[in-house]
Amino acid sequence: MEDWQKNLAQSLTTPEQLAAHFPVDVATLALVVERYPMRITPHYFRLIRAVGDPIWRQCVPDPRELDDLDQPEDPLAEESLSPVPHLVHRYPDRALFLVSGTCAGYCRFCTRKRKVGCATMRVTMGDVRAGLDYIARTPQIRDVILSGGDPLLMSDLLLKEILDGLSRIPHLDLVRIGSRVPVMLPERITERLCALLRCCCPLYLNTHFNHPREITPEAAEACARLADAGVQLGNQTVLLKGVNDDPEVLRELFRGLLKIRVRPYYLHHMDLTRGTGHFRTAIADGVAILESLRGTLSGLAIPQYVIDLPGGKGKVPVCPDYVQRMGDEVWVRTPEGGRIRFPEVRG
Q1: Interval 253-265 mean pLDDT
Q2: Contact 294, 335 (CB under 8 A)
Q3: Residue 302's Cα: distance from chain center in Å?
């Protein structure tokens, strides 16, 4: 067993383990964990400073998860868009391949919290082969995103088998991996794993930092190993109430990500997933936060703010309204809130 596997086995998975460190209502949390499992790695647990802080909120079960019943369990209609088990074909040229059923840590806001870490998310080799066969016989698919669960929790051998299978499909242009392992379990990013990934170009990895305290020396080293192996790194942040719905927090996060060679890619508005309502912010708040970052950060550090529409309709950008037409004139709002007239092209 490798060191990262030993550390993963030492994760906190019960309210009783949590109660040994913090005052919690074990019986109440046990009801939540019975429905939505808990796993907190030793590395991530050490980042908690107090009950209810931004790290705590992301990983510790909350009774409000069981009170939020108004939204669907599968808001993006992934189940109805799956031609074979664990593969979602929503966009014509892309496929989401759910190759793993578990994560290093179970985020309380996960859009797949209905099944990640549960028996219903068990992925077999038969499922993997069926997914590879579907991709191979569907030539319009040019981009495959490996997700789950977390693909990097698989063994090197199994991950290599999947990547080799994808590399033999001639119509694929690129492969992407979605993983929170650099944040939750950075020791998993071994030299051997990076050597494996180095042979699979072009390969992109989108990770998932939500708060600047998650950019630890260990996480920075993990990202450096991936970048040195030629893996293109991006980050998908979720806008979370009480975690990062603050311009200063996101400014520090995005600036810190660039320092470790991770490009801020998406700022996701919360999906309408059952059990996550206490994390949801107003769209207007997200727009205002993004607008406040303009002019204070490099353009490289500013992600695209997006909403993944319910029912599997896809992602759409949410942008501040900078341009206004007044008669025959076009006026553009400046980052400071002023306005200037912009010369319009006359036909």
Answers
A1: 98
A2: yes
A3: 16
State the catalytic residue, choosing from 53, 64, 68, 94.
94
pLDDT digits (tens, 9 = 90+) for 164-186: 999 999 999 999 999 999 999 99
**Distance from C-alpha of 129 to C-alpha of 242, rounded to nearest angstrom:** 41
What 8-state DSSP symbol labels residue 202?
A: S
pLDDT tens digits, 117-169: 998 899 999 999 999 999 999 999 999 999 999 999 999 999 999 999 999 99
Q: Which one from 271, 274, 280, 305 is the annotated catalytic residue?
A: 271
Q: Is 107 a catalytic residue?
A: yes
Is 315 an annotated catalytic residue?
Answer: yes
Binding site listing: 103, 107, 110
Which residues have a Cβ under 8 Å from the Cβ of 326 and sit 6 or more positions away?
none
Q: Is 263 in the active site?
A: no
Is 164 annotated as catalytic?
Answer: no
CA separation for the pair 88, 91 (Å, rounded)? 9
Delimit the domains of the chain by residue range.
69-317
3-class state of residue 248 by DSSP = helix
Q: What topology does CATH give the domain 69-317?
A: TIM Barrel (3.20.20)
Q: Which residues are annotated as a binding site for [4Fe-4S] cluster?
A: 103, 107, 110
Give the closest residue to 331 by CA, choosing from 229, 146, 339, 134. Answer: 339
* Whole-angstrom distance, CA of residue 285 vs CA of residue 254: 18
Q: Say which of 59, 107, 194, 223 is annotated catalytic.
A: 107
Which residues have C-beta within 8 Å of that of residue 142, sequence separation ≥ 6? 93, 94, 171, 172, 173, 174
The pLDDT score that the predictor gives to residue 346 is 61
Q: 251 an active-site residue?
A: no
Could you confirm whether 91 is annotated as catalytic?
yes
Q: Is the Cβ–Cβ distance between 335 and 324 less than 8 Å? A: no
Tokens representing 50 are: 């107090």
**Which amino acid belongs to residue 16?**
E
pTM of model > 0.85 = yes
Q: Is 200 a catalytic residue?
A: no
Catalytic one of 44, 57, 62, 110: 110
* 316, containing H or E segment: strand 314-317
Q: Respond yes or no: is residue 134 known to be catalytic.
A: no
- Cα maximum dimension of the chain: 73
